[in-house]
Amino acid sequence: MGIFNQKVDTVSPDVSLDVNGSNGTNGWYVSQTTVTATGSDSTSGLFETLLSVDNGAWQSSAILNDGVYNIAVRAVDNAGNTSNSSATIFVDTITPSLNVSLNGTTGKNGWHISNVEASAVANDVTAGIAFLKFSADGGAYQSYLSPVLFSDGYHTY
After folding, report:
1. 8 Å CB contact between 91 and 108
2. Can you give the residue ranges of every domain in the chain?
3. What gap in Å lies between CA 105 and CA 103, rounded to an integer?
4. Neighbour-count burial of 26, counting CB atoms closer than 10 A to its CB (0-12 exposed, 13-18 middle, 19+ buried)
5. DSSP letter at 79?
6. Which residues contact 118 (CB under 8 A, 6 or more apart)?
7. Dmax over Cα atoms in the chain, in whole Å?
8. pLDDT reported for residue 74
9. Which among 61-70, 108-117, 126-135, 140-149 has the top mean pLDDT?
10. 150, 115 Cβ separation under 8 angstroms
11. What CATH architecture applies to the domain 14-91?
12. N- to C-terminal Cα distance for the chain?
């Protein structure tokens, strides 16, 4: 009579994604971001964890720059059980551009000789602009909805 060892693992491994980057707002990362496939399996042990960025090649980790990425994650244990997961990662490392223009009649020595209308336009090609605010003459910031008009005096915007 012999001794037989029987190995049984019917449970799929745990799978997850480790994301390392600087958090911005609304789910965006504001720095170059590293994603790493992770997982665990308490029965037969973990064989591999891999990820795919936008249906690309399977790899253990990836570095993401500006853009929106669809990440598929896969974990396989030593028995061959597989688990899958997915996530969408948003990365925007470029500061929005801001252009301010002044519309009025220019006089001498940096002065205007008419009322001045100050307009602002912001642009961000990756994440878009969440809000645009302004402060006039040291006042509280408020939402920018239309040009701001300045009359006689020294003003900051």
Report:
1. no
2. 14-91, 97-150
3. 7
4. exposed
5. T
6. 100, 101, 102, 103, 147, 148, 149, 150, 157
7. 109
8. 97
9. 61-70
10. yes
11. Sandwich (2.60)
12. 92
